[in-house]
Design a protein that fits this description.
Layout lengths: L1 H68 L3 H19 L3 H33 L4 H53 L1
Length: 185
C-alpha cells in the first residue's frame, strides 16, 4: 500500500515538474507569485477572523486611557488620530502587495505568451515547418503561461477585493466608535 502511494506521488510529481518545465521560467515565476498571493491572503484572513476583535479592543482601551490621562482636547485628538493611524496600518497590511501581485499575474501570462511565440518563430525561421515538435513546444509554452496567468489572477482578484472590503468595513466601524467616544465626552 505504501509502495503504491509513493509510486503514485512520484508519478504526479514528475507530471507536475514536466508541466512546469514546459511552461518555462515565466510559469515558475507565475507559480511563485501566486503562491505568495495565497500566503498573504491567508495571513490577512487569519487576521480578520481571529485577531481583529483583539485589535479593536486594544485600540478602544488605549483611547479610553488617553481620555483619562490627556487633559487638553487638541492633544487628545492628536493621540486618537495616532492610534487610528496605527490601527489603519495593521488593518491594511499587505493589501497593496496582494493587489499588485494579482494584477501582475495576467501580465506575466502575456509575457509567457510572447516568449513562447518568439520560440515558435525562431524555430520557423531556422527549420521551417519541418520540425513540428519544436513548433509545438513554443506554442504550448505560450498557451500554458497564458492559462496559468489568468487562472491564478481570477481568485486573486476575488480575494483582493474581499479583503479590501473587510478592511474598509473595519476602518469605518472604528471611525464610528471613535466618533461615539468624542460625543460621549
Amino acid at each position: 500500500m505504501l509502495d503504491q502511494l509513493s509510486l503514485l506521488l512520484s508519478s504526479h510529481s514528475q507530471q507536475l515538474s514536466g508541466f512546469l518545465n514546459q511552461g518555462g521560467l515565466v510559469l515558475w515565476l507565475i507559480v511563485l507569485l501566486s503562491t505568495l498571493v495565497w500566503l498573504l491572503s491567508l495571513e490577512r484572513y487569519h487576521f480578520f477572523f481571529f485577531r481583529l476583535q483583539q485589535e479593536n479592543r486594544y485600540c478602544l482601551n488605549q483611547i479610553k486611557h488617553s481620555e483619562v490621562s490627556v487633559s487638553r482636547k487638541l492633544e487628545l485628538q492628536y493621540h486618537k488620530q495616532a492610534l487610528f493611524d496605527a490601527y489603519q496600518i495593521k488593518i491594511q497590511r499587505y493589501l497593496i502587495v496582494i493587489h499588485a501581485l494579482t494584477n501582475c499575474l495576467p501580465l506575466l501570462g502575456l509575457l509567457g505568451t510572447v516568449s513562447g511565440m518568439i520560440i515558435t518563430f525562431e524555430v520557423l525561421a531556422e527549420f521551417g515547418n519541418s520540425n513540428s515538435r519544436a513548433l509545438s513546444s513554443g506554442i504550448s509554452q505560450a498557451l500554458i503561461t497564458t492559462m496559468a496567468g489568468l487562472l491564478t489572477a481570477l481568485p486573486g482578484l476575488y480575494f483582493s477585493s474581499n479583503l479590501e472590503n473587510k478592511a474598509r468595513n473595519a476602518l469605518t466601524q472604528m471611525q464610528s466608535k471613535l466618533a461615539l467616544t468624542e460625543v460621549s465626552r
